[in-house]
Give the backbone structure.
Amino acid sequence: MLKKYDDLKLIDLLAKDNVSAFEEIYNRYSSQMYLYAMKILKNSETCEDIIQNIFIDFWSKRKKIEVTNVKSYLFKAVKFQIFNYLRNNKLTTEDLTRLNIIDVSMNITKQLEYDELEKKINMCVKKLPKRCQQIFVLSRFEHKSNKEIASELGISIQAVKNQISKALTAIRKNLQEDELIYFNFIYCH
């Protein structure tokens, strides 16, 4: 019944305690979120817990949520929960690097530092050439596949891959210059 509604309409209904709208959002995104978390953590139980906690929080904040892009909001929540999980389980820098999850040049232990890093990444993205920036945003912020981006922009999948690689290299370089950490787990999966 609610499948025909766009995400913003579902958010409006959710704010009015519509359980069906919540279920529709869950059905649209939970499996994608789980697969994303599994790519990084490779632990089914942990990933299920993360997704469940995100949706519990999403429901509890339903009257206060101001979201313009539900998918981006939920994936940002997944990224942050993965970050918290890794930090709370005190994996060593060596463990994280070996897992190709994170490369650390300083410790991040607080939400404010995470937010500051995200601002720095966004500033780096804005410095990218226009086409490179467009492709990176479609891939990493809007979570579109390389095939979807290629089709949308009328370019080859290889061109999409090349632009994403170029963007990641530029962002890493800018973050290293500022002696910040960069997260492979946020943007490289």
Summary: The chain has two domains: 1-90, 105-189. The first helix runs from residue 7 to 15. Confidence is low (pLDDT under 50) at residues 93-110, 177-189.
